[in-house]
Specification:
The protein has 1 helix and 2 strands; from the N terminus they run E-E-H. The chain is mainly alpha-helical.
Length: 73
């Protein structure tokens, strides 16, 4: 039985899932493709969550900075 593997980005993948960059074999069953796509979507979702959190944090920080530069009339 094949063992689970860790990808270059540190994520754990079941042995049945192709890692990014690995080619799908034409003999792979359709559920292997589904697992690969699900893994890709999970990875993208995680990255999007991290980026959106950073963007909101930075925009909040910028708002605070802009308020400190506000000139009273």
């Amino acid at each position: 039985m094949a063992e689970d593997r860790v990808s270059e980005d540190g994520h754990l993948h079941p042995a049945t899932v192709k890692l990014p960059g690995e080619k799908m074999d034409v003999n792979d069953p359709p559920n292997e493709l589904i697992k690969a796509v699900d893994g890709l979507l999970d990875n993208l979702s995680t990255k999007f969550s991290k980026v959106s959190t950073e963007v909101f944090a930075k925009s909040g920080s910028l708002a605070v900075q802009l308020k400190s530069y506000k000139v009273d009339d």
